[in-house]
Design goal:
Layout: H1 2-17, H2 27-34, H3 38-44, H4 48-64, H5 73-86, H6 88-97, H7 100-123, H8 130-153, H9 162-171, H10 174-181
Length: about 180
């Protein structure tokens, strides 16, 4: 029952975000739209920002369950772009209402496990410490996340996604070389 209520509040938040920026949405607006009382909202969340964070975590969990071909950077990036596009109103209104850092952290959290899987695949047969694999994962995650966040900042225009193709071209084959640079160190 608790998850059902949380999901209902999340759907109300998404619906309201389609019309208004996050900083204009109140708990009162949410409970009226959802048909629950304020106590119910506060039983589950501290405030509207806590609800948005929960939505991000749930969306991340859904993405993490998807099967992805870790041999192709573009699949990872375009999957995330598709997900963000499906939630365009939520992402843009959150991005424009609160610290851009929250959306940046979300994009990084979503991308990192996929990049880590790509790094692990490429590291097979190369003696690279966990610390260095972690560093390389952060390096590539932040590069990809930076492009994704720039895409969000520019209004999520489809034409900007061409930069993701350029990213894939730029990093194609480089990961193995970077990992070899750390071999035995």
């Amino acid at each position: 029952m608790a998850q059902t209520t949380k999901r209902a509040l999340a759907e109300s938040m998404k619906k309201l975000l389609a019309k208004s920026p996050l900083d204009k949405i109140t708990v009162k607006d949410l409970v009226e739209d959802c048909g629950v009382n304020r106590q119910t909202f506060y039983y589950h969340f501290h405030d509207v920002y806590d609800l948005v964070e929960w939505i991000f975590r749930e969306e991340f969990a859904n993405i993490a369950r998807e099967e992805i071909d870790y041999g192709r950077w573009s699949e990872v990036l375009y999957r995330l772009a598709d997900h963000l596009t499906e939630n365009r109103a939520l992402i843009l209104n959150v991005y424009n209402s609160i610290s851009h850092g929250e959306v940046t952290r979300y994009v990084n959290r979503v991308l990192r496990p996929y990049v880590a899987a790509i790094v692990e695949e490429q590291a097979k047969g190369i003696r690279v410490s966990l610390e260095n694999r972690d560093f390389v994962t952060d390096l590539y995650t932040q590069g990809a996340a930076g492009l994704m966040c720039n895409w969000i900042e520019t209004g999520m225009r489809r034409s900007q996604l061409l930069r993701l193709e350029k990213f894939e071209q730029a990093v194609d084959g480089s990961l193995g070389l970077v990992l070899k640079n750390f071999e035995g160190k």
